[in-house]
Amino acid sequence: MPWNDTDVPLAIFFTFRTYGTWLHGDERKSVDRHNNVYRSPRIEPNKNWKRYNRKTLNHKPVLLNAAQRTAVRRGIALICAERGWVLSAINVRTNHIHCVVRIGAHDPDRALAALKARATYTMRECNCWPHEYSPWAEKGSVRRLWTDRSIWEACNYVLNRQGDDLPDVEAWNA
User: Fold this and answer.
1) Is residue 22 situated within a structural domain?
2) Whole-structure pTM value
3) How many structural domains comprise the chain?
4) Residue 76: pLDDT above 80?
5) Helix, strand, or coil here: 111?
6) Per the domain annotation, does 3 fall within a domain?
7) Whole-angstrom distance, CA of residue 162 vs CA of residue 158
8) Can you tell me the distance from the alpha carbon of 34 to that of 32, in angstroms, rounded to the nearest whole number?
9) Domain boundaries, position 87
10) How many CA atoms lie within 13 A of 78 on its CB side?
């Protein structure tokens, strides 16, 4: 089927970052609430703006270790199972998470909030997130996938184009 002829996407490609790891002004460019329209240009790098944003952080940037990544993966899988969502692909990196989830007619923004909340809850449950604050940057990316081809492309990107698998460095120290 070339196109899903309904108003409900077949799946959602979610991306969310850890706190403080991609600031406005960064050389990778960024998006804000004023230029967040599909295919609009990204904010150009600006060292002064990046320096200012780094100074205004409430705490250190968050990088996930192996135990935290495992907990995040588990938490996302659990909430998907509990809600009857299909987790088609997931990749938890040190500073961001990509996942492709079939959520049916559920609101994607609320689903993103639920994924982040459950990931945090599971890290706390596993005693690998002792902080009161959230490990996540505000918001995240919600891309609606309307065709089987777009789901395949997103899953391929998530599973095969994120670089090498991350080692469990903590296990080496045991």
Assistant:
1) no
2) 0.81
3) 1
4) yes
5) helix
6) no
7) 6
8) 5
9) 11-17+64-128+140-172
10) 16
- SS3 of residue 18 by DSSP: strand
SS3 at position 138 = coil
Largest CA distance in the chain: 53
What is the pLDDT confidence band of residue 26, given thresholds at 50, 70 and 90?
low
In a domain? residue 25? no
Give the CATH number of the domain where residue 106 resides. 3.30.70.1290
User: Is residue 29 in some structural domain?
Assistant: no
How many residues are there in the chain? 174
pLDDT at 173: 41
Q: Which of 156, 151, 53 is nearest to 102 (CA)?
A: 151
31 band by pLDDT with thresholds 50, 70 and 90 = low
Tens digits of residue pLDDT in 135-165: 999 889 899 999 999 999 999 999 998 877 7
DSSP class of 156: H
Provide the H-helix boundaries in the chain.
47-55, 66-83, 108-125, 148-160, 169-172
User: How far apart, in whole angstroms, are the C-alpha atoms of residue 77 and residue 139?
Assistant: 20
> What three-state secondary structure class fits 43?
strand
Sign of CA dihedral 59, 62, 145, 118: negative
